[in-house]
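User: hey, got a sec? need Aldo/keto reductase folded
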Amino acid sequence: MRMRQLGRTGIEVSAYCLGTMMFGPNGNPDHDACTRIVHRALDGGINFIDTADVYGYSETEQILGRALKSRREDVVLATKFNGPMGEGSHHSGSSRRWIMKAVEGSLRRLNTDYIDLYQIHHPDPHTDIEETLSALTDLVRSGKVRAIGSSNLPASEIVEAHWVSERRSLHRLRTEQPTYSILNRAIEREILPVARRFGMGVLVWSPLAMGLLTGRYRKNDAPSSNARMHWVPGHLTDPRKLDAVEQLIPLAEQAGLPLTHLAMAFATAHPDVTSAIIGPRTPDQLDDLLAGAATVLDDAVLDRIDEIVPPGTDIGPLDVCYQPPSLTVTGLRRRPSSERAAA
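Assistant: Yep! Here you go:
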């Protein structure tokens, strides 16, 4: 397993990061099986694990807390806050009030007294970034958190966060966690250059495009009702994505690779990507991914991928990705009808 520096934190992490969203009720409900996956990943050279308080309604963090009981010092452990952990606005978000409560819950469930990387799971348009960074800075100074990062932040908000950190002498975001795969390359335009500029590590999620880059879903085959992402409308049946997959499958065959290995090698080939998050639900899935960890794509293969999906483009953005209020709130992109009429 290749090892890389996590931005300028001084922390060394594996090029594959074990994602745990599939641990618990949303994937594999067998806690012992999940523990075996964790140990097999560590034995396979992975030292980086990512989770979130909302995964499995906090059950995932509990699974990890038990699995890592005797191996905590072997792991760079990352978790996230911001998602809803109860009813009402006081159980989510990025306010100081919630952060201080959320971190204690994660520490307890993870059975640890520190978190290596504590990340803002999604942007919070209702909270000033200075409020969030101030609370996170206090956690770093207290020793409960080693480094702080973000996930799904637009480039402009990353820049704003670094500006606020400099002006207010607050700890800086050290990492960003965006989605990135052959089918979703938009972060190459701004996110990755911004991360490079500020010396941030980048851990990318869904390098297999939520299952599309496994080769299991083909253009003329209807996905089964138990498909992993059947609950994301249209994801597994998007003709544009499936057209690209149909071109990538023979490319992988010509390179003598499974499609999964091609996809993972692509994600980790970018010089600004530190680690790619894998999300195995079973030991067999983990073994398949670990088998391709040393894969390196030559320029001819990467050039062909660029022809199929041009750099910096998305083939239909993932529906689960963060959408800013400027796109989701009608009133922020349309003048009131009375004002339009008067104009």
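Quick note: The two ends are 62 Å apart (CA to CA). Let me know if you need anything else on Aldo/keto reductase.
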